[in-house]
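User: Some background: our group keeps a shared notebook of sequences we're curious about, and every so often someone picks one and asks for a predicted structure to add to the entry. Today it's my turn. The entry only has the sequence so far, pasted here. Could you supply the structure so I can complete it?
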Amino acid sequence: MRQTRRYSVQKSDELNVWISLSDLMAGSLLILSLMSFLFFAFTILSKKKEELRSDVPPIIIIPDDKAFRFPIGSAQLSQPLRQYIWGSLTQTIVTNRRKYKIDTIEVIGHTDGQPNQVPNGNLDSLLENSVAVKKLDSLVPSSNVDLGLMRALAITIELYKVQTKKSELKGLQFRAYSAGQLYLPNGSFALPDRNPDNSRRRIEVRFIRSATTKVVK
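Assistant: Of course. Here's the predicted structure to add to the notebook entry:
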């Protein structure tokens, strides 16, 4: 009787040991499965994040360097700048149009903070007619905002000329804007500074894919 009880206790202890080992293995397997899932999820999210980052078209900056510089207070294109528009810029637009399915090119003129010394501007009177005939010679800027817009318009008008010669640009819209002296190259607001600074004078070219317009009511 004692031997039978001793044997029963021994079997019970062995059974408990196996149950403990089984629980331990099940827990380890669960932890391993969870770690594998987290690693897989992290890999997928990282890949998606990289895809989203690469799905954003670049921003082209045309600097105010010696070749591309506008004359003071003017929107006249230099010959090297005109050649750049017809060559490298056009090819960049074609490439990004195919890659990102863009339909609009935004051209933004930036100036430095030097005060405009021309007292009598005429953009309010002549802007629309000048753009309609694609000639800016008669425009006189009365502010840096005017000047930035005129320079952006000079480039968009040249791009429209390219469009008439190159079928790859057919259907694209070109829009001109001015930021005046408001933004620094890093995108932050500029502090008052009336000194000449060619690092702030630039043209920014953005590639846009139009969205549905909603009017707030």
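Suggested note for the entry: The radius of gyration is 33 Å. The helical segments are 2-54, 79-100, 123-132, 144-165.
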